[in-house]
Write a structure and sequence with these properties.
With 71 residues, the protein is an alpha+beta fold. It contains one helix and five strands, in the order βββββα. The chain starts with a strand and ends in a 6-residue tail after the last helix.
Amino acid sequence: WTTRTNAIVNVCVDENGVDYYLYELVSPHNLISACIVEGELYLMVASCGARSWKSAEGDLRSIVDSFKVPP
C-alpha cells in the first residue's frame, strides 16, 4: 500500500492478468476497486460514515475484495 493524503493506494494483478487499483479514502471511509478491461473502466465503491466504520469495515472489505471483471 502507498499512502497519499487521506488515501491509501494499492495495485494488484489477478490470476487473469487484470490490474486492479485499490483505494481507501480515509475521511469519509470509501473503499474503491477499479480496473480497465477492453478499454472500459469498472468501479466498485463501498462507503460508510465514521460511526459505522468499526462494525462495517470487515464486510465492506470483503465486498470490495470480491469485485472481479472477466478479461
